[in-house]
Specification:
The protein is of the alpha+beta class. It folds into 2 domains: 87 residues; 239 residues, 2-Layer Sandwich (BirA Bifunctional Protein, domain 2). The chain has 11 helices and 9 strands. Helix 1 runs parallel beside helix 4 and helix 5 packs across helix 10. The longest helix has 35 residues. The protein is elongated and about 100 Å long.
């Protein structure tokens, strides 16, 4: 048995060292350790070995099996290294000058964000940002979202572990959880708690939801949200601002309309549709672009504003949706793939 094992290892060492491709390796592996392999056949002979010799023979078989497996691993590693080298191509000399001297450019989402904030600054809005890690109070409680609302379920929201500690984000209530904000509306609450009206802010930023990624959905995306609080603010003011924004961004042929909807922190609430058939890849007369409404008096009371004195509106929309509409992009995943061929289109 020992002679047979030694001969098998010697033969395997010679054969495996000469392999150059993965199919050759798989065929050789089957010849040695497959169901009908040479080592498998020797192991099956253990049943005929005398009882007193089984410990010695078994040890020899196990040692041979270990050595053969090492030879197989070495052969596979060498083949994988050769495959990787073939994919990488010739070595790069880092001292050579770069052949690509094209200037960089802003990401399309940055372009849309900057254009939107520029439009809104012209009518008095100030850019305000907030933390992406929030607490339940700022993201839900202060926005009139009850504890049993589906949006607060762990299947929709990314919650941090109960023991998590976040630097500058303090809890309003000791038992509330930290989470990745699901909308930029939390910035509205933080702003209203800091001072008295009038307030006119725009808050762009990244938000997170437990969505399955496809052509129109992403687990992280960007929103832009506006809040205006003053005396005698009406729905007419809200509609006039949205008409101005989309005409400035998408052209004078753009039209907007409201459809009744429900949001916990605005009353009345509306979905905003726009008609922009003059833009690329817009084949519908009306497409949904965001949500809006008049700030609910309950929200004002929670931040210490008198709803009998102050009124206001809020609206929000996805920057990816705007960028897709503006540039004729049909898949949201392009924004996050860092494909230089895609990004250079916006230089």
């Amino acid at each position: 048995m020992q002679d047979q094992l030694s001969a098998l290892l010697a033969k395997a060492g010679t054969e495996l060292s000469a392999l150059a491709t993965r199919p050759e390796f798989e065929a050789a592996k089957a010849r040695y350790v497959g169901p009908n392999g040479a080592l498998t056949a020797l192991m099956k002979q253990m049943g005929s070995v005398p009882k007193e010799q089984k410990p010695v023979v078994g040890k020899l078989v196990n040692e041979a099996k270990t050595q053969l497996q090492a030879q197989l691993d070495a052969a596979l590693g060498r083949i994988e290294a050769a495959e990787l080298a073939a994919q990488l191509g010739p070595a790069v000399d880092p001292t050579l000058p770069s052949p690509d001297r094209l200037p960089g450019t802003h990401h399309p989402l940055t372009l849309v964000r900057e254009e939107m904030t520029r439009i809104l600054r012209k009518v008095g809005f100030t850019v305000v940002e907030g933390p992406e890690v929030e607490t339940e109070y700022y993201c839900f409680d202060a926005l009139n979202t009850p504890a049993d609302h589906p949006a607060r379920d762990a299947q929709d929201t990314f919650y941090l572990p109960a023991a998590a500690r976040v630097g500058n984000v303090s809890k309003k209530n000791p038992d509330e959880k930290y989470l990745l904000r699901t909308h930029t509306s939390s910035v509205q609450i933080r702003t209203m708690l800091k001072g008295e009206p009038p307030i006119r802010i725009v808050s762009p930023g990244r938000v997170y939801r437990r969505d399955t990624t496809d052509a129109t959905h992403s687990a992280n995306f960007h929103q832009l949200e506006c809040l205006y609080v003053d005396k005698n603010v009406t729905v007419r003011d809200l509609k006039a601002l949205l008409d101005y924004i989309f005409a400035s961004l998408l052209g004078k042929d753009t039209k907007t309309r409201f459809r009744p909807h429900y949001f916990g922190y605005t009353e009345p609430s509306f979905e905003v549709d726009l008609s922009a058939r003059h833009l690329p890849k817009v084949n519908k007369e009306w497409i949904e672009i965001g949500g809006c409404g008049m700030v609910d008096p309950v929200v004002f009371k929670d931040v210490g504003y008198d709803p009998e004195v102050w009124s206001g509106y809020a609206f929000g929309m996805g920057l990816e949706r705007l960028a897709m509409l503006l540039y004729g992009i049909d898949d949201i995943r392009y924004f996050y793939q860092n494909d230089i061929r895609f990004l250079r289109q916006f230089a």
